[in-house]
Write a sequence for this structure.
């Protein structure tokens, strides 16, 4: 194998692949990136940990075809810190890759580096997926859907179905949902995909999808079967196993009736929660008190080690007065994903969950369970 490509293309491709590699003692080949020069004009970088896989293709001048695998951490650190020719600081410097006896020789006009490699024969094949089952969705909406809910996943492997983001559509708006049993986040978009089967995307995969595709533009191609999904955008392909199992029938736990509604300015509420959080106890207790007569929402926190804080903020309140305790962090986590300038807090009653959504935009809603009563 021998080829020439640009440093900036290399840096991006290797950086995307390196974090997918597995730290696997029984299969050390998974610590490597597969570098494949099989066409005349492009170079592929492939990494997998058997659960996730990524393939990044960059333009290159291929002088001799071939493959090699090298340690991902080594080659990524080298390319990331490689200064090269000072006159080519923009990243447009040509770099030559050449395989020599299962080693990788990286050279420029002024330098030469040899990195120990391995034969590609033992590198696992990333399975193909039937692309007939696919949808095209704006990548910014797909990323927004995942971001809006994935922090609510459980990070325990005991129940893998709630350690995943649930995505479904059919005749309904495409919907993203996640829960850890203490809270639940749901994000909807006002278009649907009848061909989209329900998917459970593991939280580890979601984290990598966000890392790889956040900030990209265009439409992403999402292909799927019963076992895996494949995401394609421009020069990047990402594949992940799907979680087996059935997501809870979450709509059954969303209250149908509410005793108190509170509308509050989003920025005021966020800043008040930040301050209240300073004085939260070890369990992040946040006491919420509604004042229907004076239209004030009172937040109270206290800590044995820090002190006590009480703040009343103006709000539009209808219904009954209520006193209830929630996890301050759980309430705060969702607020950046409420698109409205005003937040609607819907209380179902003492000992019952709180529904948070936008006063003007209800495409995102968030359910949080109460803590022990005050």
């Amino acid at each position: 194998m021998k080829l020439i490509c640009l440093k900036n293309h290399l840096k991006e491709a290797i950086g995307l692949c390196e974090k997918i590699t597995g730290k696997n003692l029984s299969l050390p080949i998974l610590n490597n990136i597969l570098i494949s020069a099989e066409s005349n004009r492009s170079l592929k970088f492939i990494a997998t940990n058997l659960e996730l896989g990524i393939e990044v293709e960059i333009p290159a001048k291929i002088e001799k075809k071939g493959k090699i695998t090298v340690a991902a951490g080594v080659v990524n650190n080298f390319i990331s810190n490689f200064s090269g020719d000072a006159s080519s600081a923009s990243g447009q410097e040509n770099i030559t890759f050449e395989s020599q006896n299962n080693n990788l020789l990286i050279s420029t006009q002024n330098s030469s580096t040899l990195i120990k490699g391995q034969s590609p024969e033992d590198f696992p094949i990333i399975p193909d997926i039937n692309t007939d089952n696919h949808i095209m969705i704006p990548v910014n909406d797909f990323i927004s859907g995942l971001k809006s809910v994935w922090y609510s996943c459980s990070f325990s492997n005991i129940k893998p179905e709630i350690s995943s983001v649930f995505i479904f559509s059919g005749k309904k708006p495409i919907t993203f949902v996640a829960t850890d049993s203490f809270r639940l986040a749901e994000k909807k978009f006002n278009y649907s995909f009848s061909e989209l089967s329900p998917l459970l995307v593991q939280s580890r995969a979601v984290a990598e999808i966000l890392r790889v595709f956040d900030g990209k533009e265009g439409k992403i191609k999402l292909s799927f079967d019963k076992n895996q999904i494949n995401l394609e955008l421009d020069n990047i392909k990402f594949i992940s196993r799907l979680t087996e199992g059935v997501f809870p029938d979450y709509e059954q736990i969303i209250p149908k009736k509410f005793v108190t509604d509170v509308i509050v300015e989003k920025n005021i509420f966020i800043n008040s929660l930040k301050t209240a959080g300073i004085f939260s106890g070890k369990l992040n207790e946040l006491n919420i008190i509604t004042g229907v007569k004076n239209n004030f929402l009172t937040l109270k926190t206290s800590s044995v080690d820090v002190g006590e804080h009480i703040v009343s903020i103006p709000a539009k309140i209808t219904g009954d007065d209520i006193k209830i305790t929630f996890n301050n962090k759980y309430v705060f986590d969702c607020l950046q994903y409420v698109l409205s300038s005003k937040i609607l807090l819907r209380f179902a009653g003492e000992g019952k969950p709180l529904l948070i959504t936008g006063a003007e935009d209800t495409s995102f809603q968030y359910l949080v369970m109460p803590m022990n009563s005050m």
Summary: The chain has three domains: 2-122, 134-251, 254-368. DSSP finds six helices and 26 strands in the chain. The two ends are 69 Å apart (CA to CA).
